[in-house]
Amino acid sequence: xxxxxxxxxHIESEHVRHISCNSCGSSDGxxxxxxxxxxxxxxxxxxxxTGEVTHTxxxxxxxxxxxxxxxxxxxxxxxxxxxxxxIYRDGELLRFHYFTNDGILQGAKVKTKQKxxxxxxxxxxTLFGQHLFPSTGKRVVVYEGELDAASGYEALTGWPHVSLxxxxxxAKKDIKKQIPFFQGYQEIVLFFDGDTAGREAAKEAAxxxxxxxxxxxxxxxxxxxxxALQANDAEAIRKAIWNATVYQPxxxxxxxTLLNEVTTPTKPFDHEYPYxxxxxxxxxxxxxxxxxxxxxxxQGKSSICREIATDLLVKGERVGYLALEExxxxxxxxxxxxxxxxxxxxxxxxxxxxxxxxxxxIANWNLYMFDGFGxxxxxxxxxxxxxxxTGLDCKVIFLDHLSILLSGLEGxxxxxxxxxxxxxxxxxxxxxxxxxLVSHLRRSSNDKKSHEEGGRVSLSQLRxxxxxxxxxxxxxxxxxxxxxxxxxxxxxxxxxKNRYSGECGVATKLTYDLSNCRFxxxxxxxxxxxxxxxxxxxx
Length: 539
Hints:
10-stranded mixed sheet, Dna Topoisomerase Vi A Subunit, Chain: A, domain 2, alpha/beta, Rossmann fold, 27 strands, 5-stranded antiparallel sheet, N-terminal domain of TfIIb, elongated, 16 helices
């Protein structure tokens, strides 16, 4: 029974069922009573029988202790402990009396034989049993329920043992209200239930407590302290408290746990580039990295990506290719051309010649392509890349190019690029792929040579956002003077970001032969590849 004040009359009502709370959103923290009033034991939201909303649980003003302290034989809790905590049996009811910090009785949480709960009196923000213990000390142990706190006291008499007034669902809120109380203790042990709700509640509660003081106790055999004491296993409670582990927020680890990870030998690289200079500068292609190719328009970014992809495919690698500014036919013909050494994407070629080239290349490759053209919702592209990586086991993926991915979106370009690069970086870390990304440059200022005239590329010229440089492991710039009769087919590959070794500068020079759609590597002075003499990255 619950007593509800309606005007001057006190109406007794019975608990009907647990319901969701419209105030805090708890799925079953609120109770509906037979007279129509409701009360949430998570947030203390209260509605009267008439529907009037209040936020107090003002019941009788003449609150008194009801029942008597008795030994709870089944629970293993002594009369002495029940007398201390004021856990009183009253017929078939069990009353847990709550007090202010000053020791003034406020009310009681009442447990029925059917294991339903209701509250009598005025609610208080204090924890159950809090008034019994000082506000300073070495250790305080916090439980979900009143019987758990009493069970803990039976196992470790003398230590402060308190419990949450509203269970796991109200843990964070109830703990937060008592921060001044907890600040006085050197160690705070959260001994919540071992179920999912209890574990999550412990993490939430720990997040608002003083850093470095919180430990989390757990038992492998029992759900909670009460279950352990019922099994006459007080030692399990003591061990759980003594062996409680220091709470560490997500993302923080003890570096000592990295022994196996850092001592397991790894290959220096997973694949070689088809260009000697890039290998010497970047030390090969490695999984779990993001590499960006950048240049002005028409400098050969896509051609180089296709040649690298072809080299990997010939070696048996599984490759995903997303070319957003050309059709799959164009991409396929470009890859076939690089493989067989014929410009199949130019001029006219008969069906037999194309079939022969296809059978020598794509028919034997583990190549997967994206059937799309133009701008797409970035979420679609992220999803497809992740599917290529996890569903089709592609270890190397090419995305050509970044700008067109965002071209159809409205809003701040810089912000969208930041979000996109962060998500792509996260995807690389999560899947372990090697992602090759094509990005454009901003136009050169008037006092500098244009990119189309072979102007030197710097990180600051990446179009749109500094995040492209920051989140890439390597950035490779292509420089080519398209206006020069002598050098218009010669491309300089300059490493302008190298997280692996820091070696930057000119890696190599390539000459493109249109007749066979391949790059040949020019002889470069060995000194330009010598470690320690090249430029270094500022990242």
